[in-house]
């Protein structure tokens, strides 16, 4: 258990405590395993399958119901997930019910826990940044998600930086209050950030580490007790991260971890009655949960994410590379993936000249998707098609009979490309206004006024609503680092991730406490009856 000591003692002992903890963690590359890990990434296979457990009320437990995850590389069963069915949710319901509405800590209750979580974050951030540990998680992510090593490593690095950001006193700074003078002597009103108490977190497969860690820790920082469900295909990553957090001092009964199908989790939400639920996933499920949970939900749902190329784009190779990464990296399976590209009109000669230069490279040829991948062993459940782009004229995009089809989010390596002229900006802005999912966007231009055209960058930003919008020559639609807000806009249910503003918005509510100590005015008399 964490014990608060006198302020001076805590400051005097903290450096020694940190040194002893870090030096006790031997991370020489000669070690074959990590002290928190229960799997060896290189040994994961059909012949040596891993097992993923559940955590509830401070205990890791199995299940009589095992869901087998197939290897994305060859289809062999290589992970066994202990999934809880509808008959097994009672321990999780009881665990949520044990947490009061005022949370595990708040500004008036157990404030030492803010310091505890600053300490946990410092240790976990340091540990996750060590090469042996970051390599372990990057390779584990790769085994279950369609990412290159550097994409997976980038996810680990963002998570480590997030934890470093909330070390020391930064957790208690999240609960910073304010005071307003009252109407008379002895009266003051104070605003506080207050936890919800029991909460739930549901996260998807495409970011197995970053999304669940950032939302889990945000919930814990503010004093909530979360139950976390990660998509079963990738849940092994977060199970190992939970064990790392426990190794770094996270009280084992502060958070629960459940593996289940959607129907079982829905029942848990209805019976466990969490005070707030964070859901990251499809719009269809998000809308259902919003009704089921009577609005007690924050969402980071689907995004039909657009990019506009301005008339002054000159670093064509760089911009094209970013477009490819935005649309097709991680097989296009990101909520922020580039879904529609508006290209300012360019001359045919210029495009053909660039294409002809590329085709002079030995072995090059012209291909652009629309066909399934061949000669591979990827299981059909994962989907495997060539990166694909479809051109649709802007006039056809805007037609009522086409718009819904054209703007449907395809969670894969697929995008729509269209073209616009100088005088067609109103048509582009009209298309943006009609879209319904406003997560990320990009306006690629280094000319704030778009002086070469009849409109400007400010106008595009001013007449759109996407919650995370990049602007400038290096603008992209993907990328969710720890240093800025990432989340949708235009929806009161919208959730953010990663920043102090996002954590306070999603994982706490406002509480006002008005102190009124008097004194009572001299010669006060009981007023006459009205």
From TrEMBL:
One record GO biological process: L-proline catabolic process to L-glutamate
InterPro entries registered for this protein in UniProt: Ald_DH/histidinol_DH, Ald_DH_C, Ald_DH_CS_CYS, Ald_DH_N, Aldehyde_DH_dom, ALDH7A1-like
A molecular-function term among this protein's GO annotations: aldehyde dehydrogenase (NAD+) activity
Entry annotated with the keyword NAD: yes
Protein's recorded name: Aldehyde dehydrogenase domain-containing protein
GO cellular component: mitochondrion
Family to which this protein belongs: Belongs to the aldehyde dehydrogenase family.
Key word DNA damage present: no
């Amino acid at each position: 258990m964490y014990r608060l000591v006198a302020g001076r003692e805590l400051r005097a002992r903290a450096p020694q405590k940190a040194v002893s903890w870090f030096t006790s963690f031997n991370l020489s590359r000669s070690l074959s395993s990590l002290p928190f890990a229960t799997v060896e990434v290189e040994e994961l296979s059909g012949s040596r399958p891993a097992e993923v457990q559940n955590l509830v009320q401070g205990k890791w437990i199995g299940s009589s119901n095992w869901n087998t995850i197939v290897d994305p590389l060859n289809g062999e069963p290589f992970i066994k997930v202990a999934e809880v069915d509808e008959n097994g949710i009672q321990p999780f319901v009881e665990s949520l019910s044990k947490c009061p509405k005022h949370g595990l800590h708040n500004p008036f209750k157990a404030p030492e826990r803010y310091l505890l979580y600053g300490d946990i974050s410092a240790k976990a951030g340091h540990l996750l940044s060590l090469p042996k540990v970051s390599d372990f998680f990057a390779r584990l992510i790769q085994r279950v998600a369609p990412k290159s090593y550097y994409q997976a490593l980038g996810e680990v690095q963002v998570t480590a930086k997030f934890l470093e950001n909330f070390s020391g006193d930064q957790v208690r700074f999240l609960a910073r209050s304010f005071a307003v003078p009252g109407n008379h002597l002895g009266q003051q009103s104070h605003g506080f950030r207050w936890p919800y108490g029991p909460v739930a977190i549901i996260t998807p497969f495409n970011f197995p580490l970053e999304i669940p860690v950032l939302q889990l820790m945000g919930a814990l920082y503010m004093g909530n007790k979360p139950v976390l469900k990660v998509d079963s295909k990738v849940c092994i990553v977060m199970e190992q991260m939970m064990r790392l957090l426990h190794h770094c001092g996270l009280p084992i009964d502060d958070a629960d971890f459940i593996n289940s199908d959607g129907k079982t989790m829905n029942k848990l939400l209805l019976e466990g009655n969490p005070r707030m639920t964070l859901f990251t996933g499809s719009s269809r499920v998000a809308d259902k949960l919003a009704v089921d949970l009577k609005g007690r939900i924050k969402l980071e749902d689907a995004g039909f994410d657009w990019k506009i190329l301005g008339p002054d784009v000159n670093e064509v190779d760089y911009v094209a590379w970013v477009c490819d990464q935005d649309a097709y990296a991680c097989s296009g399976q990101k909520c922020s993936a580039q879904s529609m590209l508006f290209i300012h009109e360019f001359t045919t000669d210029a495009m053909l000249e660039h294409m002809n230069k590329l085709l002079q490279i030995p072995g090059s040829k012209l291909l652009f998707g629309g066909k399934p991948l061949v000669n591979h062993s990827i299981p059909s459940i994962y989907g495997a098609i060539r990166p694909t782009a479809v051109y649709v004229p802007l006039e056809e995009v805007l037609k009522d009979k086409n718009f819904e089809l054209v703007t449907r989010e395809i969670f894969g390596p697929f995008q729509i490309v269209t073209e616009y002229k100088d005088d067609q900006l109103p048509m582009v802005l009209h298309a943006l206004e009609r879209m319904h999912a406003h997560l990320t966007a990009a306006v690629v231009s280094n000319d704030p006024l778009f002086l070469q055209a009849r409109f400007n960058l400010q106008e595009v930003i001013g007449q759109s609503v996407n919650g995370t919008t990049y602007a400038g020559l290096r603008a992209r639609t993907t990328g969710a680092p720890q240093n800025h807000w990432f989340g949708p806009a235009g929806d009161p249910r919208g959730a953010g991730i990663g920043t102090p503003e996002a954590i306070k918005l999603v994982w706490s509510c406002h509480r006002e406490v008005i102190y009124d100590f008097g004194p009572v005015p001299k010669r006060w008399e009981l007023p006459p009856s009205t």
